[in-house]
Recover the amino acids of this structure.
């Protein structure tokens, strides 16, 4: 992507929102560093594995700060980073190459430092992919994934997310893998016991929950984009993300409207999500 073009496009979109009496838009990007950097000329200069090898929280914070300073003037308000999944012996390469490492304490320390740095510059951070993709042998972008892991392994995977929540991370992204021991047959993003029970109640997260791409192969295997929007919001997610093409988001929006009008989805659920998103936007505008 071209930074100047992005800045121009975002400004036009924000002007259109203002002209329509809408609040400012959230503009999100995947700027993790390493393999996943949508603006390749910008920071982070060091990837998560490189930061993990150094083990230096100050370096992770500096990368977060630099990334925030780079993104904020472009009009980008949310970075879909950092990845807080643990690297395990079986972790898929496309996930392992984006993690800080295998030690929950180190991942917690470096992850929260990156979050602090990023958010100090007025860009919201996103801890992902809850409740942890470390045990996944395949990336959910490419295939349906079922994670069968011992409770001890799952608990270790939660530690960095708890640290991020305690550090004030503004968003958490849900995993699209299925965790049979936590919620049979449903990807985490569509599972109330994981979104509500674990992330909201157990970890105490009060910020904005965003889905992973609802047009991924892992979601396609169990749902279509329209039904996935309703199921994710019913499970407790605030933002339904469609990265494949614009049709998905239109289908998802229409499905949510129909679900509320038809009584299949409680309007109060949408109102609670709206408040959380409005609170995030207000805090970003003030920073």
């Amino acid at each position: 992507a071209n930074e100047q073009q992005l800045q121009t496009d975002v400004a036009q979109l924000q002007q259109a929102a203002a002209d329509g009496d809408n609040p400012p838009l959230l503009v999100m990007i995947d700027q993790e560093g390493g393999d996943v950097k949508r603006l390749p000329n910008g920071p982070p200069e060091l990837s998560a594995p490189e930061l993990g090898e150094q083990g230096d929280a100050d370096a992770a914070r500096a990368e977060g700060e630099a990334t925030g300073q780079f993104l904020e003037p472009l009009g980008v308000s949310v970075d879909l980073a950092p990845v807080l999944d643990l690297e395990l012996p079986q972790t898929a390469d496309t996930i392992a190459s984006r993690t800080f490492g295998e030690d929950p304490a180190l991942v917690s320390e470096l992850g929260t430092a990156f979050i602090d740095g990023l958010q100090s510059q007025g860009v919201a951070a996103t801890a992902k992919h809850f409740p942890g993709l470390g045990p996944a042998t395949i990336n959910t972008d490419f295939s349906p994934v079922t994670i069968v892991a011992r409770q001890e392994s799952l608990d270790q995977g939660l530690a960095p997310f708890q640290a991020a929540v305690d550090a004030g991370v503004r968003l958490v992204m849900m995993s699209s893998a299925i965790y049979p021991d936590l919620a049979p047959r449903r990807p985490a993003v569509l599972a109330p016991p994981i979104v509500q029970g674990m992330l909201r109640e157990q970890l105490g997260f009060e910020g904005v929950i965003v889905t992973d791409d609802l047009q991924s192969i892992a979601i396609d295997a169990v749902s279509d984009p329209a039904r996935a929007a309703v199921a994710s919001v019913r499970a407790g997610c605030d933002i339904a993300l469609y990265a494949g093409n614009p049709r998905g988001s239109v289908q998802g929006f229409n499905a949510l409207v129909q679900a509320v009008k038809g009584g299949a989805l409680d309007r109060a659920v949408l109102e609670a999500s709206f408040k959380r998103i409005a609170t995030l936007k207000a805090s970003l505008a003030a920073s």
User: Anything to note?
Assistant: Residues 267-286 form the longest helix (20 residues). The CA atoms of residues 51 and 60 lie 6 Å apart.
